[in-house]
Amino acid sequence: MGMISEFKEFALRGNVVDLAVGVVIGGAFGKIVSSLVNDLITPVISLFTGSADFKSLSVTLRTAVLDAEGKETVPALLLNYGSFIQSVIDFTLIALVIFFAVKAINRLRRQEQAAPPAPAPAEPSAEAKLLAEIRDLLSKR
C-alpha cells in the first residue's frame, strides 16, 4: 500500500473529518464567546468596578535608573499583577458562557430524547376485521 493511499485512507476516516469540523466550529465559537465577553459582559462589569481593564495594575519592584540626560539606562522592574487578574476574569467569564451554552444544548438533547413516541396505529374497526376474515377465508378456497 502506497504512502499516498495510506494517507488518503487516514485523512478520509470519519473521526479525522469529524475532528476537523469540530476544530473549525470551535474556533468560530471561540470568537463568538470572546466577543460576547469583551463587548457585552466586560463593559457591564466595568460599571460596577470602575474599570474594564486591570492590565495597568502593577507594583514597582525596582524603579528605573536614569542617566544625567534623563534617559533610562535600566528599565523599571514591575510586578504586573493586573494582567493576571484580567486573565483570570476573562477565563472565568468565558468558562461561564461555555457552561451555559453546553447546559442549554444538553437540555435540548434531553427534551428530544424524552419526546413521546409516535402514537401506535389505530386498531382496525369491526368492519375492517370482518372484511379481513372474509378475505382470509376466500383465499383458503
TrEMBL record:
Task: Give the matching InterPro entries.
Answer: Mechanosensitive_channel_CS, MS_channel, MSC/AndL, MscL_channel
GO cellular component, as recorded? plasma membrane
The keyword Cell inner membrane is annotated on this UniProt entry = yes
* Location of the protein in the cell: Cell inner membrane; Cell membrane
Q: Which UniProt keywords apply?
A: Cell inner membrane, Cell membrane, Ion channel, Ion transport, Membrane, Transmembrane, Transmembrane helix, Transport
Per the annotation, which location comes first and is thus the protein's main one?
membrane
Please list every transmembrane segment annotated in the UniProt record, as residue ranges.
Answer: 12-33, 84-102
Recorded GO molecular functions are: mechanosensitive monoatomic ion channel activity
Q: List the membrane topology term(s).
A: Multi-pass membrane protein
Q: Gene3D superfamilies per the record? A: Large-conductance mechanosensitive channel, MscL, domain 1 (1.10.1200.120)
Which SUPFAM superfamilies does the record match to this protein? Gated mechanosensitive channel
Similarity comment: family membership:
Belongs to the MscL family.
Oligomeric state and partners? Homopentamer.
Query: What is the role of the protein in this entry?
Result: Channel that opens in response to stretch forces in the membrane lipid bilayer. May participate in the regulation of osmotic pressure changes within the cell.
Q: Which PANTHER family match?
A: LARGE-CONDUCTANCE MECHANOSENSITIVE CHANNEL, MECHANOSENSITIVE CHANNEL MSCL
HAMAP family, from UniProt? MscL (MF_00115)
Please state what the protein is called.
Large-conductance mechanosensitive channel
Task: Please tell me the species this chain comes from.
Answer: Arenimonas maotaiensis
The UniProt gene name for this protein comes to mscL
